[in-house]
Amino acid sequence: MSISVPFIFTILTSLPWTDDFRLFCGDLGNEVNDDVLTKTFSKYPSFNMAKVIRDKSTGKTKGYGFVSFANASDLAAALKEMNGKYVGNRPIKLRKSTWKNRIDYEALLKPKTRPQKKLKVQPRSVLHK
Asked: Most buried residue, 35, 56, 67, 104, by CB count within 10 Å?
């Protein structure tokens, strides 16, 4: 059985970042991608990764992303130094992320099922008996 590279990449990028300190990056322009955020915040020693959130159907950026750090002091320094600095064509708005408060562990454990659609019964015409 072989597993494709895009499948593995999808699994790895969808895993929650654990044991890190996350920074919310708002007001990102369309030209900002993961690489731009990575280059912007890689000067901090405990920088882990950066992710720009994109619309699944269009692939366009939603205007925000996240940057993770292994150390809380680097998060505080980045928040102080980088808030309002230009990243791409716009000044970036930074806030400490509250991502741990948003995880619904019960929902993650439940199997994903879709409700069954009810079929509409078409009335039969006089010609079809």
From this structure: 67
